[in-house]
Amino acid sequence: MSVTMLELDNLEKEFGTSKAVDGVSLTVMKGEFIAIMGPSGCGKTSTLRMIAGLDSPTDGEIRLWGRRINEDPAWKRDAPLVWQNYALFPLMSVRKNVEFGLKQRGLPSARRVKKAEEWMERMGILEFADRRIDQLSGGQRQRVALARALANEPEMLLLDEPLSALDPHLRIKMQAELVRLHRELNITFIYITHSQSEAFAMADRVVVMSGGRIQQVATPQELYRKPANRFVAEFIGGNNLFAGQLHADDRGYRFTTAVRDIVVERPTTLDPNQADCLMVPADRIELDDRRLGHGNEIEACISTIEIMGSTATLHLESDAGEELQVQTSMRELDSRRYLVGAPVVARWQAADSLLLSA
């Protein structure tokens, strides 16, 4: 059974005349992995700093296990923060860095040494125990930062873009490591990131922020398939967006853009008067060599082909200047032998269109 651990209630943070966080409310369950993402300046790091106790809210309330903690200092919150630059002590050894928090808590020397060694071994850095931090690689420093934070066995771990300085291969490896630690320790993780792939790979739920406000809180799959508004759809990416207006006539519902009508299904959760944007996921569009006369069809030419592993994204442009992206598998790309400049027909069904509001 899920138990509420952390509550942010209408949280606000002002810096002078600027409001960095504007009415943020969020409930986090015990043992949950929450990722907060959004563009630079959206308020995600300010929100994390208030949870950590490094900044005080201008208004609103932070509750841990139902108790208000707005005035509690950082050291009383049992929520260590792993920084983007790791914040390790460069002239100390790995061992001394890992022991630091334990020493601050007054743990006796023998127990401190034993616990630090347990965590260094668990994080695969025991062999570097007597090295200085400046003698380690980025990935090794990341493990030291995690070992130092987790040695105190906190109930909640805060992470501020901890993988952003790592190369892509090591970043993926550390993602798997964080997921493993989260599963084994049952600690609540709150993770700040710019990266959609990081958030989607690790988090139970993702919080998307913009302008100091939460735009949507959902599972990765829900965010991708059912974004709450145009901002989320654009930020998540992998979607084709059309501006226009929704109309209904004896032929059904049609979304009228500057150059064409697109057949859509009747909206069920959105006021038709607010439907000013249409989203078609890139992986729901099929390509063909000719028109079939059913579904939504757009004639276009392939402008570029972007290959990422076993998938490919084809960027199309119609004679009317519309730009589309289509995601397909490399197997499909090889079998059809699509080339840059080739004419194609992009086709999708009405059910694959999602009406959104700005």
TrEMBL record:
Source superkingdom: Bacteria
Stated name of the protein: ABC transporter-like protein
One Pfam family cited in the UniProt record for this chain: ABC_tran
Key word ATP-binding present: yes
Keywords for this protein: ATP-binding, Nucleotide-binding, Transport
Species per Swiss-Prot/TrEMBL record: Pseudomonas saudimassiliensis
MF annotations from Gene Ontology: ABC-type transporter activity; ATP binding; ATP hydrolysis activity
Keyword Protein biosynthesis: no
UniProt-listed PANTHER family: SPERMIDINE/PUTRESCINE IMPORT ATP-BINDING PROTEIN POTA, SPERMIDINE_PUTRESCINE IMPORT ATP-BINDING PROTEIN POTA
Record-linked InterPro entries: AAA+_ATPase, ABC_SmlMolc_Importer, ABC_transporter-like_ATP-bd, ABC_transporter-like_CS, Mo/tungstate-bd_C_term_dom, P-loop_NTPase, Transp-assoc_OB_typ2
A GO-annotated cellular component: ATP-binding cassette (ABC) transporter complex
Domain annotation ABC transporter: ranges: 6-236
Lineage: Bacteria, Pseudomonadati, Pseudomonadota, Gammaproteobacteria, Pseudomonadales
